[in-house]
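Narrative progress, year one. The postdoctoral researcher (J.K.) led the effort to move from monomer predictions toward full complexes, under supervision of the PI. The following entry was the first complex the group processed end to end, covering 426 residues in total.
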Amino acid sequence: MTPEERDSKAAEYVLGTLPVEERAEVEHALADDPDLAAAVRAWEDRLSPLDAGTAPVDPPARVWLAIDRALGAGGAPAVRPAVLGARSGDVVDLTRRLNRWRGFAAGISALAAALAAFVVYDVIRPVAPEDGRFVAVVNSDGAKPALIVSVDTAAGTVTVRSVAAEQPADRSLELWHIAEGGTPVSLGVLDPAAPVLRIPAERAGPSPTSGVFAVSVEPVGGSPTGGPTGPVVYSGALIPETP
Amino acid sequence: MQEHEPDLTRLLAQTASGNRPAFHQLYSAVSSKLFGVVLRIVRDRAIAEDVLQDTFLRIWRKAADYDPKSGRPVTWMAAIARNAAIDVVRQRQTARNRFADTDEDSLEALADPDADAVHPTDREALRRCLGTLEDEQRTVVLLAYQDGYSREELAERFDRPVGTIKTWLHRSLARLKECLERP
């Protein structure tokens, strides 16, 4: 693409008049083409004063309520099946995957809890459960633990210790917290080089001490949708450190 | 007017770190503007509400990607809203209910210093440069940007082949750029 072609494409992308396929191409290319991205930003800057020609309209309160609900109790946005702009096939697939994954997570949590009882045996210290420490062993099908997730409500931290998580090549592992009846909230991408990861507990929402932790395989850098998109490889429920 | 800028930048940065109250403040500050922009393009309140919701979920997810060096926060957010709105109307491919066209006040609104928190110099420059275009070529740009017209819809409206509209758009945009870059 010559610089002129690129600029013209960026201009019509911002204007909104590109045919659907070309629009999708530009959208796709933006992430890897800094020149194109810069051209798009420059056109956004040039044309944005036109927004002043449109009168503001107050949206009804239900819009914020819906946003708030979609974000769930915690930090990261929930999977929203009706993601606008996604192709309908993707949406159906994502929803199906999420449902399958939820079933899987529910099934495995009992097993993980049983396993956790062994693992935490050595680190028990008497603390009040409502203001104390909780732990989850995140594993795969009863195999040896991959991660140990500890929640310290007094310190307000979630600590993730990687024991034997297997990192697939060219993929990232992303840790999720799912409150009971809630949608997955991302706690971030696991760093294979860092055996211990500390996360502010508020990112997992007001109740990180219940629910399930799970790890899914995602594109490098984490899920592009805000919800799990790849297979869940590890999962476990949280229990108080003290019985 | 300009003092809103650091506020939005700060709120976006706080949103990026998962601060929900900051995100709510950000919503309160810009949702009316974005809703106006979206509603004008999709022309259906229910769909506009969905698009606005989707826009803010995208802002929440992408807040960490916002770089203050690369543009103003309101421009960044309005672009997300416009893109979401355009995507929806292009996917629906149905003729939209054209109850109102770009009114002739668009250029006037650009001259109104209280119209928005856009830098007055930028606004004045764009107004002046749009004024150098021929009427039809200015109108295609305004209808596309503000009302979300596609090339086909513009062709129908002006009773010209799509190829002609494409030429008009290219010529208008090239001239705008040239005019805006002139010192």
